[in-house]
Structures are given as structure tokens and as C-alpha cells.
């Protein structure tokens, strides 16, 4: 394996100082009154030997890496993947690169990832945080690191965040089912103390309270093994045969739920109506198409990266912004009343 070329090697070859080489490579030749002839010689040699600057060393010298760390729950999830792509595009246009990773809502894993990003000297952190990383985030903020949260936030942390109105979104979806004549409406979601999940449960319960109906909540532990999601889901539906409508708290549990409903031989919406939080292609292509709460992906991504870029701008006035966006309930066949006699 050939030795990696360094600034010292280039300087020795041209019989000049490594400081002069550094000035040229960092675009400061004119400022330091270095001749064009020498600049051309350095650039020519750099190209010939394939020299690549050490980004970590450069970040230590300049105090900037031009890298933003993006930490999401699951980068393969359509919601997070779409937002990550939009953030990456905006960041690139402004001279930044994105390193992203999945936390799997695992506290210890998230702490390790934050530590890795700190070692890489990233300039800022965009996080959809799991529970239990409050102290880690406080340390980042205490050391002057920009942090922007999205999708959810940590109650005791005062930093920028961008979320949707989860409580109203679920209230509105539940109210839609009530207006369609459904009376035994269940909410099936992942068990979580995260802000967005708790707000969705609150919205559901408030809507049923206003309609003088009883809630039927089923919380399931998240697991990457789909069988560990579908098994308790099937047991719940077999036990509660009177359910005539289901709200799913996330797109992931919604797709699992649709599989279980089909396995049980139930028809949508004739036997059970369905609405899911988060809208994506699978729901549009399902037969019948599934009603879903669509989050404003582009607006979320735009606000998140705009907040981060503002925090990274040394000339900007330091502020903390907490932004809440509206969602849209896309009503499709899965939640419409189909010639069903509604008992009043």
C-alpha cells in the first residue's frame, strides 16, 4: 500500500514551507502575496500525486467541518428518508454535507452516535430524539453546539424544534370517523413516552370524550421483528370483535395492521374502517385506498434546515424557535361509511 501524500511531502518536493502550501490550498495565496507561478506549481503537483486534505485536521484548524449530523429514528422509514433527502439537498446548496444515521429509538445507541459525531467535529446536530438523552443534549448546548430537533422534542430541553400539531391531527381524524357513524373506535399505536406519540393519544381521547364515546387504546412495544408487532395486534382484534374503526398511530404499525386485518378475513371499510398517521404510497395503492394524516414533509425539512443554517451563521442573532405545522387528513375509501346500519 502506497504512503498517503501529506502537505509536508508536497512542501519538501517543491522545497517550500508547509505553511505556504497550506495557504495555497486554503485559498489564501493572494492574501499572503504568494506568486501565481508558485500557486500553479503547487496545484499541479497536488493533482499529479492525488493529494486529498485531511478533513478532520482541517476542521481542527478552522473550527468548522461543514458537516451536519442528522439522527433519525429509522432512515429506511419513508417519512424520515424523505425529510433526510430534502435536508441534504438544502445543506449541499449552502456548502454543508450531511452524515445521517438511525437511532432505532435506542438511548444508548444514540449516546454513542452523538459521541461519534463529536469526534468528527460536526458543526451542528439535527435530531429526532429518543427518550433519555437529555443530559447528552444539554452537554452539546452547553458547549455551544447548535441543536435542532424535529418530529418530537424533549420536554426539559430549551432548543429549536419543528413538529406538527399531533394532538389536533389525531383529534380531527377521530372526529372524522365519529361523523361517519363509527362508534367503537380503537387506537393502535406503539407504546412510547415521546412527545409526538403522547400528543396523538391525547387527541384521540379528547375527540372520543367530546363525542361521549369510550376509548379503546392498544399500545404495542416497538420491535424490528414484525411478528412481535402483528401477534399482539391480532390477539387484540380477535378479543375485541366489536371494533368498527381503527386509527393507527404510525405508518409502520398501520401497514402491519392492514396485514392482520386481511389475515382475519375482515373487509375495509365494510367490517372495519381504517385511518393511519403518516401518508405514503402504500396507503394510496392499497385496495381500498387508506385514509391517512399527511405530514407536510417539504415544510418540515425546510424549517429544520433553515433553523440549523441560521444557527451556523456567525452573524445571525441567537434565537430559539419552536415551530408547529399543520397536517392534512387525506380522506379515502377506507374510512367512509359503506351502507352500514348505524345503531344510534
Automatic annotation (TrEMBL):
CDD domains with a match to the protein in the record: HTH_LacI, PBP1_EndR-like
Gene Ontology MF terms in the entry: DNA-binding transcription factor activity; transcription cis-regulatory region binding
Residue ranges of domain HTH lacI-type in the record: 5-62
Keywords: DNA-binding, Transcription, Transcription regulation
Name recorded for this polypeptide: LacI family transcriptional regulator
Amino acid at each position: 500500500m502506497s504512503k498517503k501524500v501529506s502537505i509536508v511531502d508536497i512542501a519538501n518536493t517543491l522545497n517550500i514551507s508547509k505553511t505556504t502550501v497550506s495557504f495555497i490550498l486554503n485559498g489564501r495565496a493572494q492574501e499572503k502575496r504568494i506568486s501565481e507561478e508558485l500557486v500553479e506549481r503547487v496545484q499541479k503537483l497536488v493533482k499529479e500525486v492525488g493529494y486529498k486534505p485531511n478533513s478532520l485536521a482541517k476542521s481542527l484548524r478552522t473550527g468548522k467541518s461543514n458537516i451536519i449530523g442528522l439522527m433519525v429514528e429509522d432512515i429506511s422509514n419513508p417519512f424520515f428518508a424523505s425529510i433526510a433527502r430534502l435536508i441534504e439537498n438544502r445543506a449541499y446548496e449552502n456548502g454543508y454535507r450531511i452524515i445521517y444515521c438511525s437511532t432505532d429509538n435506542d438511548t444508548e445507541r444514540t449516546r454513542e452516535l452523538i459521541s461519534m459525531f463529536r469526534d468528527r467535529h460536526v458543526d451542528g446536530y439535527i435530531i429526532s430524539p429518543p427518550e433519555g438523552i437529555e443530559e447528552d443534549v444539554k452537554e452539546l448546548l452547553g458547549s455551544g453546539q447548535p441543536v435542532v430537533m424535529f418530529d418530537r422534542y424533549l420536554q426539559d430541553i430549551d432548543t429549536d424544534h419543528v413538529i406538527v400539531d399531533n394532538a389536533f391531527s389525531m383529534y380531527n381524524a377521530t372526529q372524522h370517523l365519529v361523523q361517519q357513524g363509527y362508534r367503537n373506535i380503537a387506537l393502535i399505536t406503539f407504546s412510547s413516552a415521546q412527545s409526538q406519540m403522547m400528543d396523538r393519544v391525547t387527541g384521540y381521547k379528547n375527540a372520543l370524550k367530546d363525542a361521549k364515546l369510550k376509548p379503546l387504546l392498544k399500545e404495542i412495544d416497538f420491535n424490528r421483528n414484525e411478528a412481535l408487532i402483528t401477534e399482539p395486534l391480532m390477539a387484540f382484534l380477535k378479543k375485541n370483535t366489536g371494533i368498527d374503526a381503527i386509527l393507527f398511530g404510525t405508518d409502520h404499525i398501520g401497514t402491519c395492521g392492514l396485514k392482520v386485518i386481511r389475515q382475519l378475513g375482515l373487509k375495509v371499510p365494510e367490517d372495519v374502517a381504517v385511518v393511519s398517521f403518516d401518508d405514503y404510497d402504500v396507503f394510496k395503492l392499497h385496495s381500498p385506498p387508506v385514509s391517512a394524516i399527511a405530514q407536510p414533509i417539504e415544510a418540515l425539512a425546510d424549517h429544520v434546515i433553515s433553523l440549523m443554517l441560521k444557527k451556523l451563521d456567525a452573524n445571525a442573532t441567537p434565537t430559539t424557535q419552536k415551530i408547529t405545522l399543520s397536517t392534512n387528513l387525506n380522506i379515502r375509501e377506507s374510512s367512509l361509511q359503506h351502507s352500514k346500519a348505524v345503531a344510534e
